[in-house]
Amino acid sequence: MDAHDVEGDLEKILLTEEQIQARLTEMAAAIDADYKGQEILLIGVLRGAIMVMADLSRKLHTPCEMDWMAVSSYGSGTKSSGVVRILKDLDTDLEGRHVLIVEDIIDSGLTLSWLASNLQSRGPASLSIAALLRKPEATKVQVPVRYVGFDIPNEFVVGYGLDYAERYRTLPFVGLLAPHVYGA
Ligand code: PRP
Q: Beta-carbon neighbour count of residue 170 at 10 Å?
């Protein structure tokens, strides 16, 4: 899927494929330096994180395993409430593992805040977070993110894993959704 396939649906491209890939290469280098001599258990949060997970993991030289969680937050409409339900739990025991949560976006921070404390209670040797995008203006709860790709404005973004009504996830870039698409 490319920009031509969604013409008219986007206001503009916020981050190009090249910008995303270049930043992921830098993040992978930082992670490799920090985890030298260790093995990482990457935990992706379905579904948005699939693209970041696929690209970031392939840029790492550090040996790593992957596992996945699916969570859903109770709330009104698209607003996160901070009350999270596990739809699919991990298959891996975290005891003694170096765990790195991989996320596409931190919006209010409520999902990750809940997830981080849930995973911390499972006894990992270490627990850190990598997120491609963060919206500082939307923050409701501070989450200590060790690796951040880009801070972005508090606007409706899609692409590179991020959806609107399950669409646009397969775009290779991140774009701003035009208000007419979501009925504003
Ligand atoms: C998105 C994103 C994070 C969460 C961030 O997931 O992947 O998990 O929202 O929001 P928060 O910081 O306000 O909690 P979403 O619930 O849209 O599901 P998806 O990944 O399946 O698209």
A: 14
Q: What 3-state DSSP class applies to 96?
A: coil
State the catalytic residue, choosing from 9, 55, 104, 107: 107
The answer to whether the CB of 99 falls within 8 A of the CB of 118 is no
41 lines ligand 1 (CB under 6 A): no
Specify whether the CB–CB gap between 41 and 98 falls below 8 A.
yes
Q: State how far the Cα of 92 lies from the Cα of 122, in Å rounded to an integer.
A: 11
| Among 105, 112, 152, residue to substitute to test ligand 1 (most atoms within 8 Å of Cβ) | 105
Is 107 marked active-site?
yes
Rounded Cα–Cα distance for residues 62 and 32 (Å): 6
The answer to whether 155 touches 182, Cβ cutoff 8 Å, is no
Tens-place pLDDT, residues 78-137: 556 677 899 999 999 999 999 999 999 999 999 999 999 999 999 999 999 999 999 999
